[in-house]
Amino acid sequence: MEYNGVVREFFPEGAPVLLQGFYFDDDAIEPEACKMFPIIDGKILEEPPCEDKADEIFVRRRIARRLNKILSYDDTPNPR
User: Is 21:33 a contact under the CB 8 Å cutoff?
Assistant: First the structure.
């Protein structure tokens, strides 16, 4: 599958990380397409390996949920 969009969030809630997820057309971001990169001294490092697969799945699901909220954000003013 070829992704055509990316959503990134820097320093979510002040945490020194970059969250990234890819999506295709109007589909939601899937957990498998999400990554979390640490930011140290202003540099984005590689995603650290996760030894526990269950933890990795849990984290990727949380990232996908958060990035999907950003992706679906609509700032169009409501008519009165």
Answer: yes
